[in-house]
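Trying the structure run again after the queue cleared.
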Amino acid sequence: MDLYSLLREIADSWGLLALFAFFVFCAVWVFRPGSRPIHDDAARVPFRETEPMACPNACPACTCAHMTGDAK
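Done. Tokens:
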């Protein structure tokens, strides 16, 4: 038996088994009971920014449209 055939047989059997075991491990890791707070926190990331964006000029008496809400 040549080397290619041996490696092919190993990849077809043990490689498939190893990748399937890795998939099952990842699925169990994601859906484990203790991970719910982590996933809930990650789901709220886009909504954390509550402050409006600052004016790029940042002058003390800013009267630009961005800060006053006027559209020019």
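The chain has three helices and no strands. Worth checking whether this holds up in the mutant runs.
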